[in-house]
């Protein structure tokens, strides 16, 4: 009686036990894919750097635009009772008023001009803060003031630091208070270590703006002996074009993802066993 041939199930082909990842990598196919992945990642990285340069360019242009704008009246930017808005820092302003009392003049120590150390001379300018009343047709509010950095002197006793008097109209740049605390300074000598409104507000008997003005010119012009005009500190950076920063990080993430995908594909190909060729099945 003929016996039907039995069909044996095909046995699974075990993976090569000593197969090296380098053996898979060093094949023309995977070397070519690596070159392609590196090229794509490089292009994406360059695009990210380009987006970052665009952000820096926009930021520099916006900051320069703020400092180059035509001067406006100080009172038009923010009121005396309000805090200093960030958009006002670095703006050029005009100030019209009267020089304050000589006893209210201050000096800020440890200020360099070139290779010399000295003092900034800070003098108040009393402002006319006239306004309209609610029901009496008009009243005049108590005078306020703004502290003006007139310039630099080598010592607090220099004759050029003599406080001016009379009416003045000046142009300058707005700067904010410095971070260093000056509450423990020797205020009796009117010498402070930092330029801070919270410290100065307790040394005068009138309201003052929450900002300083670094003077660049004045009318009438300063006397022959006058502090040396100093440039204002660099204004804070206007962070324009933050969307470009997001684009830059997006491109860099894409570049990293491209290399990660190539690595995953290589590992999957390495773990896949190589099936040996089976002999032809006889009829």
From TrEMBL:
GO terms for cellular component: plasma membrane. It is found in: Cell membrane; Membrane. The keyword Membrane applies. InterPro entries: Surf1/Shy1, Surf1/Surf4. The keyword DNA damage does not apply. The chain crosses the membrane at residues 30-50, 245-263. Keywords: Cell membrane, Membrane, Transmembrane, Transmembrane helix. It comes from the Bacteria. Its main location: membrane. It is a multi-pass membrane protein. PANTHER family: SURFEIT LOCUS PROTEIN, SURFEIT LOCUS PROTEIN 1. Belongs to the SURF1 family. This is SURF1-like protein. It comes from Kribbella voronezhensis.
